[in-house]
Amino acid sequence: MFPVFLQLAQFRVLVIGGGRLATERLNAILRNSPATCVTVIGPVLTPALHELAGPYPQVQLCERPWDATDFAQHEVLFIATDEIPSISKYRLNLLGSGCLPT
Q1: Chain-centre distance of CA 55, in angstroms?
Q2: For residue range 35-69, what is the model confidence (pLDDT) as tens digits?
Q3: In whole angstroms, what is the distance from residue 61 CA to residue 13 CA?
Q4: CA atoms within 13 Å, Cβ hemisphere of 25
Q5: DSSP for 4-55?
Q6: Which of 85, 82, 90 has its CA nearest to residue 66?
Q7: Which of 25, 34, 38, 56 has the fewest CB atoms within 10 Å around its CB?
Q8: What's the whole-model pTM score?
Q9: Are the C-beta atoms of residues 33 and 7 closer than 8 Å to each other?
Q10: Which domains does the chain have, with CATH numbers?
């Protein structure tokens, strides 16, 4: 592994997932860079995720399955799901998208 430090407020960030992992990632992003524009997409978003995002108008929550076109609209991607089949699909759709997976 090679540590990379990014000023996330300079990027459009996408978080895929809607459960505990997504909540942890969003919390870390907002704690370290509260001005970051973040989109969270997941088929089901937990109440904790809604509560965390509430005070941040630049956080957009989308309760729906992700689509390959979502990657093209963002520069940084956090895959915050433990669904192994989904992770493989993300990798295939990232090829050529210009989105940096973390």
Answers
A1: 17
A2: 999 999 999 999 999 999 999 999 999 999 988 78
A3: 12
A4: 23
A5: ----GGGSEEEEE--SHHHHHHHHHHHHH-TT-EEEEEESS--HHHHHHHTT
A6: 90
A7: 34
A8: 0.82
A9: yes
A10: 8-101 (3.40.50.720)
